[in-house]
């Protein structure tokens, strides 16, 4: 657990100049748990285990009517703002559902063109406006680092609310990484856990923020190895490889995805993120089939392996795979609701109450 440092005791420039590891102690509350959730580097193994356990408890409690009522009473006096200035289906809806599970009342801004930003109000002032009416801000933004700015800004007002980064630019999607970890942990429960597993990432690894966040979070599990399979121009960034190297993680970089399938414990597919292309067709100069998982590939995937995808997909996973028991992407998506519930409950210090209810009623 990290020892807390205070965001209201450091200037924005000094905070902004820190490495993400150095920023992490500024994001926790007095008990060492996350207050703001901004990037993968802030989570350690103990926190990951606690979040996964809590997600499972919430999931099981939610199966019973009395349990649903118990959960919905926990934070019924709180309000959440979902501020999504980039498109989203899963992250938006699973946060929406997670807030409902915990009893929050919810409001949303998904189109800044109908907010007062169009009258020239700065994003910072918009956020401060939200903070006047709500108790938590969950935000998706195309701007790298903006969620950090918001967390710092609000921590220096009389409304220091928790801020959750629901995807920022091309760099981070920390809560997607949390749900991916929860999916991997659940999938390998009967195979000795996530330790010693080989994860293959495939697709647009240069601009896919989910792979960046997940590969860093995987450093918390011993003897993990990773393969990054992508066309050369869409390969994972050197900054990520450098951080894996420093952590002593074994990794390979290849453009031969098909050769990696028989060796994978998990294949993590991603779509080509051509919305980031600077000119049309820029990222399309390769054979997409070489970086797609086809129905035929099922025969070469070990029986104990799983197929993941943060979704949305285009054609990089054949729909013929959807009903294979190893296709985990639908369950992965649903896991987002449970781990996000666990994260928010922890932000608001309701984790102990949930665990107590679970032990008294379901254990
Ligand atoms: N995985 C993910 O972030 O999906 P959405 O863009 O639909 O939220």
Structural summary, described in words:
The structure is a single chain. This protein is of the alpha/beta class and 363 residues long. It has 2 domains: 7-172 and 336-348, 3-Layer(aba) Sandwich (Rossmann fold), CATH 3.40.50.1370; 174-333, Aspartate/ornithine carbamoyltransferase (Rossmann fold, 3-Layer(aba) Sandwich), CATH 3.40.50. Helix content is 37%, strand content 12%. The model has no long low-confidence stretch (mean pLDDT 95). The protein is globular and about 55 Å long. It has helices at residues 12-16, 20-23, 45-61, 65-74, 90-101, 123-133, 146-155, 174-187, 209-217, 238-246, 257-260, 329-347, 351-361, and strands at 79-84, 105-109, 136-141, 163-168, 198-202, 225-229, 250-254, 266-269, 306-308. Helix 6 (123-133) packs across helix 7 (146-155). Phosphoric acid mono(formamide)ester (CP) binds next to helix 5.
Set down the secondary structure blueprint.
Layout: H1 12-16, H2 20-23, H3 45-61, H4 65-74, E1 79-84, H5 90-101, E2 105-109, H6 123-133, E3 136-141, H7 146-155, E4 163-168, H8 174-187, E5 198-202, H9 209-217, E6 225-229, H10 238-246, E7 250-254, H11 257-260, E8 266-269, E9 306-308, H12 329-347, H13 351-361
Helix pairs in contact: 3-8, 3-12, 3-13, 5-12, 6-7, 8-9, 8-12
Phosphoric acid mono(formamide)ester is lined by residues 88-92, 167, 176, 310-312.
